[in-house]
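#help-structures
NK: newbie question, is this the right format to request a structure? protein is Small ribosomal subunit protein bS6m
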Amino acid sequence: MIIYELCVLFRIMPKTELVSSIKRTANLIYSKGGILRKLDNLGTRNTPFKISSHGLVHRQASYFVYEMNVPPTTLADINEELGRDVDVIRRKIFKKNTYNEVEECTLHEEMQPVPYRKNVQELLEKSKKLHKPKFQYGNGLDYYPFQK
């Protein structure tokens, strides 16, 4: 199943109300057929800019990140219901990147000088393909065709 991250900014409120808002958001995920994998509290911080939400201007928020598995068809419903929640200032759902590729690293490759390593050689080849030729003055034109 696809792993999503739901980043939520809650308005500043007492701890008991904040707990009930967190539970309400978790129950919303469960009711839409999702599984809550992890909940991170990033703390209360100043927002990078003033945020207007539900008729109020917010300069501070409590930041939380929910890691969840939900069907992709329910993402719009979750986003819409959180948008109606008065305690939520901002919400955003991201697809979490999972990397399955594991590169094997040997000691022999690591002991080589940097210019002789295989991945550096590949980068050099890519840069040679992207290199644009410079203007040559002996091409028959009496002037430089581009402004200096």
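mod (FA): yep, format's fine, and the tokens are attached above. The mean pLDDT is 88.
NK: thank you!
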